[in-house]
Automatic annotation (TrEMBL):
Bias-annotated ranges (Polar residues): 31-46
Chain spans, region Disordered: 29-52
SUPFAM superfamilies: Periplasmic binding protein-like II
Protein name in the entry: ABC transporter substrate-binding protein
Superkingdom of origin organism: Bacteria
Organism: Nonomuraea longicatena
InterPro entries per the UniProt record, alphabetical: Bact_solute-bd_prot1, SBP, TAT_signal
Alphabetically ordered keywords of this record: Signal
Keyword Nucleotide-binding: no
Matches recorded under Pfam families: SBP_bac_1 (PF01547)
PROSITE patterns: PROKAR_LIPOPROTEIN, TAT
Signal peptide location: 1-22
Length: 476
């Protein structure tokens, strides 16, 4: 694959403007799932029986043998081939990945797998450099915010032909809302490695102590805000916040907090700033009042003091909006009883972002059919069940994975309901200027959180400074 100078520069810009979603908007996604600490390093694994205390080989073998792996009309390679698979991972997830590869090779003896594992923070920079040099792995991890730029620069292979030759692909098992990040001009370029909406979590102990009813599907944002005021109590180290954290500029700010009121951060095509519209001003004022007038959410100073003691995780916040991926951690903690329900609705309806990452096949791969066989099984319902992640994109894997991870069945059913009903990619920023837009908006909004400027002044300043950055989103 050859790239011209314009494409190389565009990809370099993508690396510089990558949104680190896990740090934004309360998104603490667990990219890898495990049930216990790892006590065996990868270097000590038996290549013929990879496993450790977290993922015993015998357990993995029994699970693998119990699963039905999907068939495809894409042919097996006639001779030995090697595919390179580049992913983000940690040692916990990597043991499970190595186990998957072990059993995959038994099913496909002519396919060898070379794994490249990188941290999330360094992944994009590393592979942008490889793209500029004309060399990329066959299969590659892709965060949802990167994919449109990769597609525009002809880095990725459309998967539709492979899907058409795979009658057991089960497209209806994948919520369409979470695929929009990986589509362009009707073609699909990535299959999600995970997918989840956001929910409203609540601390049952704090609600019981206050004598208040738990949140449910009937709740509006007005109900939530009023309840947050009632639940605030105490001071200092014993302070209880009604809700945490305060709404701030983030890639999914619009979907969670603005769309319910008919407002947006950016326009639908991400080329104009709309956060200073009258609807947005009214909505963001509600959150500023909850902080400055009511003290029901943590201030910036309190957030700094609590940086290593998250109010929600430590039992000091009554309510919290976050993704389904935190359920594994919640299921294991013993600090408080918790529940989850639908996010509140506003005058314009109820919205929850469906977000996830994907595996893609690079255009320069010489082993595209073998690469498809790999991602087809890795991202099948059986593949998700084997890997036991808490936010599987395939809905058929949700209940068995929830049972294996100790997540209540009714909560897993709730997630499936949200994904089928109102989860969406609408309003979630994904184009190249995202990180610059969020990073520019945050310090301006923080001045409002400190009471130094009013809401309208803050949002007008955000619009003025973010607007020129959006030229980067005019991708071909």
């Amino acid at each position: 694959m050859e790239m011209n100078r314009r494409q190389i520069l565009a990809l370099a810009a993508a690396a510089a403007t990558m949104p680190v979603i896990a740090a934004c908007g309360g998104d603490t996604r667990q990219r890898q799932q495990a049930t216990a600490p790892v006590k065996t390093g990868l270097q000590t694994l038996d290549p013929n029986r990879p496993g450790n205390e977290t993922w015993p080989f015998a357990e993995a073998e029994a699970l693998n043998d119990s699963l039905t792996w999907p068939r495809t009309n894409v042919p097996e390679p006639a001779a030995k081939v090697t595919i390179t698979v580049a992913t983000t991972s940690d040692i916990i997830a990597e043991v499970r990945n190595l186990q998957f590869d072990h059993f995959f090779r038994k099913r496909h003896p002519n396919i060898e797998i070379k794994r490249e594992t990188s941290t999330f923070d360094g992944f994009l920079t590393k592979y942008m450099a490889q793209a500029a040099g004309g060399s990329l792995p066959d299969v590659m991890y892709n965060h949802y915010s990167w994919t449109q730029n990769f597609i525009a620069n002809r880095i990725l292979t459309p998967l539709d032909d492979f899907i058409a030759r795979s009658p057991e692909f089960a497209a209806d098992d994948l919520p369409e809302a979470g695929l929009a990040y990986f589509r362009r001009d009707g073609a699909l370029y990535g299959l999600p490695t995970d997918m989840a909406p956001k929910l409203l979590y609540f601390n049952k102990d704090l609600f019981d102590k206050a004598g208040l009813k738990y949140p449910d599907e009937s709740w509006t944002f007005d109900t939530m805000v009023e309840t947050a005021r009632k639940l605030k109590s105490g001071s200092g180290a014993t302070k209880i916040y009604g809700f945490s954290p305060t709404a701030k500029p983030a890639p999914d700010l619009a979907t969670v907090f603005l769309l319910p009121f008919g407002a947006r951060f950016l326009s639908a095509d991400e080329t104009r700033v709309e956060i200073n519209s009258p609807e947005a001003v009214r909505t963001m004022s509600m959150w500023l009042d909850l902080l400055l007038k009511d003290g029901a959410t943590p201030s910036l100073a309190e957030e700094l003091l609590l940086e290593k003691v998250d109010p929600w995780k430590s039992g000091h916040a009554a309510m919290h909006i976050n993704g389904a991926w935190i359920m594994t951690e919640l299921a294991k903690q013993k600090a408080f009883a918790w529940g989850a329900t639908h996010v509140p609705k506003g005058p314009k309806g109820r919205f929850s972002p469906a977000v996830g990452s994907a595996l893609v096949i690079t255009e320069g791969s010489r082993q595209k059919e073998a690469a498809w066989l790999y991602i087809y099984e890795f991202l099948s319902s059986s593949g998700y069940r084997f890997r036991r992640i808490s936010a599987p994109a395939r809905q058929s894997a949700w209940l068995p994975n929830a049972e294996a991870l100790g997540i209540p069945a009714e909560t897993a059913e709730l997630v499936k309901e949200i994904l089928a009903d109102y989860a969406t990619s609408e309003g979630v920023l994904r184009l190249p200027a995202t990180k610059k837009a969020v990073d520019t908006a945050k310090p301006i909004w923080e001045r409002a959180l400190l009471g130094k400027i009013d809401v309208k002044t803050a949002l007008d300043e955000i619009a003025a400074k973010v607007g020129p950055l959006l030229a980067e989103n005019q991708i071909a």
